[in-house]
Design brief:
Length: 512
């Protein structure tokens, strides 16, 4: 039997939320099958089985927060411990042990003189149970106890001929002073009655009377009926970003499942504010209530990472201005030809070219040593509602400008929709953060703990410049390199920015 534990899916993960189970208790599990969906501090990931067998037990229900290393399920052979757990987990009652009633059948042959006494006692089986005798059980002959129903409750189905003979033989062996529990009255037409005795491997009479609706139906890959909506994690995340209550959304997918398209055109919750009298077209700004509240999980992860970085990495910054006239001209020409390339794509490609000459900025500090990375994996910061995600474009030194553009746009869309996986954010060796689209001229950033530098990019602005002694208007962009002083010094960082400046001011090199 193997224990399935909550894995550590990222360097910063300490706990995770189990979103849903993809397998039911008792189902066969093969190595590599998806057992469950887990929400980390950054993304939703699929938990794969590392062994084959049968899912014997589920110890954590969907929606619960679990610490890393906690046992959440058991997988093994059906005959191993916990193999009976499916009936308990699925809500079915335990199965009573069935024993053959050989003794009551053999006693009539051993005492033939008791046969005449069995006849008068077997006659009133069709009579209703009285309050005095309905609560007593048969004590002799080892017969199983039967619970007599009350007068207002449903009656029991008639016995078969074989059961009547067995009951008569059992009554004949009873001692003096013992009473037999009378049989229930006959069943009325159209009434459905549970069996008085459990069938072989079945439930007891009291358990059989439970309504079927009390046993919740649960399918693999489907959230349990705990008030959670039928929606994928991407849809739930998007609904939170838009402020939409999914309980009020009618799903158009299979079995009423809510899709992303169902959220389009809906009014976000709380968007309509109360309007004061006399100003029908003006909304009143609503301030949040005063008081402390917990950070969202992504915001808490960002806070933990930047605190660790700021406390352990000695930062220093170098800023430089770059003329972007030629780069903007090439970008417009590519756009007219159907190739969409942004300024950020030009910067990422230029960084990949420059880092080949300055490998110490593509390295990691390892407690007194330096680890140089063979591949240049550039992380591109993407702002989302509760924080920032950094998906990684891998092997940028081998990619063309168009390939970098396509990869960056795809990763950014997945990050904003909440579909980014942990693997797509791991392995970065250098980062680029761009706030130019917000009009920011220059800024600094925090270095990711496993990297040695991050480049911040400002807006491309029209600025008065002096060229060959003549005033002119030029497009200027400011970039700032935030570097780890344990690995590089100011002169090394300045040399990297100078190389980056040469590449961006002569962008034809990026097209080769």
């Amino acid at each position: 039997m193997n224990e399935i534990v909550m894995p550590k899916l990222s360097d910063t993960m300490t706990e995770g939320r189990l979103v849903s189970w993809k397998k039911r208790v008792g189902e066969t599990v093969n190595r590599g099958d998806v057992l469950a969906e887990v929400e980390t501090d950054k993304a939703n990931m699929e938990l794969e089985a590392f062994t084959s067998g049968v899912l014997l037990e589920v110890r954590v229900q969907a929606g619960e927060m679990v610490q890393v290393g906690t046992v959440i399920a058991l997988v093994g052979k059906p005959e191993e411990k916990g193999a009976e757990a499916p009936a308990v987990k699925e809500g079915a009652p335990p199965q009573p042990e069935s024993k053959p009633q050989a003794q009551p059948q053999a006693q009539p042959q051993a005492q033939p003189q008791a046969q005449p006494q069995a006849q008068p006692q077997a006659q009133p089986q069709a009579q209703p149970a009285t309050p005095e005798t309905g609560s007593e059980n048969v004590k002799g002959a080892g017969a199983p106890p039967q619970q007599a129903p009350a007068a207002e409750e449903a009656t029991v189905a008639p016995e078969t001929a074989g059961e009547s003979s067995a009951a008569a033989a059992t009554a004949a062996t009873g001692t003096e002073g013992e009473k037999q529990a009378p049989a229930a009255p006959p069943v009325g037409a159209g009434e459905q009655q549970p069996p008085t005795e459990p069938a072989e491997g079945g439930a007891t009479p009291a358990e059989a009377q439970l309504p079927v609706k009390e046993q919740p139906a649960w399918q693999p890959g489907q959230l349990p009926a705990e008030g959670r909506e039928k929606a994928a994690p991407v849809v739930r995340r998007r609904a939170r970003e838009l402020g939409i209550d999914l309980t009020e959304v009618q799903g158009s997918g299979p079995d009423g499942r809510i899709l992303l398209q169902d959220l389009e055109g809906r009014e976000p919750e709380g968007k309509q504010e109360a309007k004061p009298a006399g100003e029908p077209g003006r909304a009143v700004a609503q301030m949040p209530e005063e008081g402390s509240r917990p950070l969202p999980r992504l915001r808490a992860a960002v806070a933990r990472i930047v605190s660790q970085s700021w406390d352990s990495i000695p930062h220093f910054t170098v800023t430089m201005e770059i003329a972007m006239d030629d780069a903007e001209s090439i970008r417009r020409q590519l756009k007219h030809s159907g190739i969409l390339v942004t300024v950020n794509d030009l910067v990422v490609k230029s960084v990949a070219v420059a880092l080949q000459k300055f490998p110490q900025l593509n390295a990691s500090y390892t407690g007194g040593g330096m680890m140089l990375h063979a591949d240049i994996n550039v992380g591109v910061a993407v702002g989302v509602r509760d924080g920032v995600l950094i998906p990684v474009v891998r092997g940028c030194q081998h990619l063309s400008l168009q390939e970098i553009s396509l990869a960056s746009h795809k990763l950014a869309e997945r990050a904003r929709s909440g579909a980014l996986s942990e693997q797509e954010m791991a392995g970065g060796t250098f980062s680029v953060s761009n706030l130019g689209m917000y009009g920011v001229s220059d800024f600094t950033a925090i270095i990711y703990p496993s990297q040695s530098a991050v480049l911040t990019v400002g807006a491309v602005a029209d600025t008065a410049v002096i060229r060959e002694g003549v005033p002119a208007c030029g497009k200027i962009m400011k970039v700032t390199l935030c570097a780890d002083h344990r690995l590089v010094d100011g002169a090394y960082a300045a040399g990297f920015l100078s190389e980056l400046k040469v590449i961006l001011e002569n962008p034809v090199r990026l097209l080769i």
